[in-house]
Design a protein that fits this description.
Layout: H1 2-8, E1 29-30, E2 34-41, E3 44-51, E4 53-55, E5 60-62, H2 68-82, E6 94-96, E7 105-109, H3 116-123, H4 128-144, E8 157-159, E9 165-167, H5 172-175, H6 180-185, H7 199-202, H8 216-232, H9 243-251, H10 264-273, H11 284-290
Antiparallel strand pairs: 1-2, 2-3, 3-7, 4-5, 6-7, 8-9
């Protein structure tokens, strides 16, 4: 379907949905790629993400509906997302183009438990290893489909009603691309993502990369950071400000300390995951093979 759409330069009508209604007047959550509104569709609660991209010269969100090629790329990636089916991946219901006249909105099921960070804060941390295993399985599925998440962190991991991890906000990093300078000068919510950035995303040339490019290896680095984040409830280098100071620590080879309750086996995997050289990091499948077994 994707190849046919690219050949015809058209997208299937099945990607778009109608009938989204009863949306809240104000967003429930301000995400890195858009503002999330609670709404209704076919009798169930849904999350409507009003997509925006960012420009460094404006220091504010701007909708890029004037760029057909960029919009077409975004819609094609949404088509890919719609075809993904995995219990640890947030499903896409479709694209809504009626609720907001100036925006395309991505519609997905409403996750009342919120993010994994909120869930652990409310329910305690006894399930951290199980959730980390589920996150790794979801990430491995994306990589098996040749999709890089690009922005893996606790804020982009939701919890289903059954208490399972669901990866969200993946793939959009390709369409809505920003280099490190833009992230730090745009004032966008995604500036905080640099705390999960692998060193090759900060200084590509110094770490064997031609340019700023998200890869499975940079996802694995971010996953290692997520392991620490879920154990501590805090982002990497939470005590270091500003963001640039945390970045310099990463470049120098420094990493967050081992959380008190993290097993030595998991800590070894974390250290392998955030190795300085991208090529030496394990694949997600290798991480799952060596992941601590439930006690």
């Amino acid at each position: 379907m994707q190849k046919l759409s690219e050949t015809l330069e058209q997208l299937p009508g099945s990607l778009f949905i109608a009938g989204v209604n009863d949306y809240d007047a104000v967003p429930t959550f301000h995400g890195g790629f858009g503002d999330v509104y609670r709404a209704s569709h076919q009798g169930r609660m849904v999350a409507v993400k009003r997509i925006r991209s960012f420009t460094s010269n404006a220091h504010r969100a701007r909708l890029h509906v004037h760029s057909p090629s960029r919009l077409q790329q975004f819609l094609r990636e949404a088509l890919v997302w719609q075809g993904l089916h995995h219990r640890f991946i947030l499903p896409l219901i479709g694209i809504d183009r009626d609720t907001f006249a100036d925006s395309f909105c991505m519609v997905s099921p409403w996750m009342k438990e919120g993010t994994v960070l909120k869930y652990l804060e409310t329910h305690g941390r006894t399930d951290v290893d199980r959730l980390l295993r589920e996150i790794a399985k979801g990430l491995g599925y994306l990589h098996s489909k040749h999709i890089d998440h690009g922005d893996l962190r606790g804020a982009n991991i939701l919890i289903s009603d059954a208490g399972h991890a669901c990866l969200a906000d993946f793939g959009l990093a390709t369409t809505i691309s920003e280099d490190i300078t833009e992230l730090l000068t745009s004032g966008s919510n995604r500036a905080g993502s640099v705390r999960w950035f692998a060193p090759e995303l900060i200084l590509p040339a110094d770490f064997g990369c031609a340019k700023f490019t998200r890869t499975p290896a940079s996802d694995v680095y971010a996953y290692a950071c997520v392991c620490v984040e879920l154990y501590t409830g805090r982002p990497p280098f939470a005590d270091v400000t500003p963001e640039t100071a945390a970045m310099f620590r990463v470049i120098r080879g420094e990493r967050p300390r081992q959380p008190a309750n993290m097993s030595e086996q998991l800590w070894r995997l974390v250290n392998a995951g955030w190795a300085p050289a991208p090529g030496t990091r394990p694949a997600v499948g290798d991480i799952l093979a060596l992941f601590p077994t439930p006690s």
